[in-house]
Sequence to fold (313 residues):
Amino acid sequence: MTSLIVENINKRYGNIQAVQDVSFSLQKGEIVGFLGPNGAGKSTSLKIICGYLCPDKGRVTINDIDIMSHRIEAQKQLGYLPESNPLYPELRVEDFLIYCAKIRGLGGANRSKSIERVLDTTGLIQRRKQPISELSKGYKQRVGLAQALIHDPPILILDEPTSGLDPNQIEEIRTLITELGQRKIILLSTHILSEFSSTCSRVLIINNGRLIADGSVESIIHKAQGGINIDVSFICEKIEMTQDQIEAKLSKRDSITSITARTNTTKEHSFSILCTKDIRPELFHFAQEEGLALTHLAQAPKNLDHAFRTLTS
Fold:
């Protein structure tokens, strides 16, 4: 079973503790987002995971291979696309991939098959003879992905793979990552929060060198909110009831943490409710019991951007 295990890695630069006791494990089929503000320890962690930087303490094992004691063997299991895409602009796409294949020890028919495979996977067949310098930023990122895939590694480490791309190019790369993630481990670092919710099955958040959150997008939003947010609106049709009266009745429920009034008209009253569980069925019955017309009842939209700011502030 393909696995990437990070155990209590630490790294200090002088008086600065860049990474402190970071641990997590990844399995085949996971696309995991790695998120953190600038200077949080994200890039240092990725360099340690890839074997380009030695931790002061802790270990990284890739398919049961310790990357520090068996670096070359472990790195054969990795494909890495750094934020600064390492391309040779004077080379044609195909020549660059031939060069990368040789570095990876691929030769003969195996090399040719690998090049054809990655050209097809990344949509570069029509660009194979084109100089890299003439490619758009989106196609240059595809070439970067192609070199990371040339040896068909079970694990991909992608650092800001959509940086500087336009919306159409971002969607193309995102689709490609999603397809690759069905059969590989992908650890994806990006500052574009929408990529996490639309692409990643799991998110890691690092701040001040420590891992502060690990889970699905929904669970991390839940953690930041301290519960579930529900928006509800009532209309007083048959009875007269003020907003304060409705709020007072709802506040008696143990599962409700807080209530915020959003609108208050003569007849319609809207609230944003933070609760420890999904109480939408209870709110439906509450409206029936109190003779109120329920005009809106929905769980508030999930917002990873707000959760990130809350957890890292």
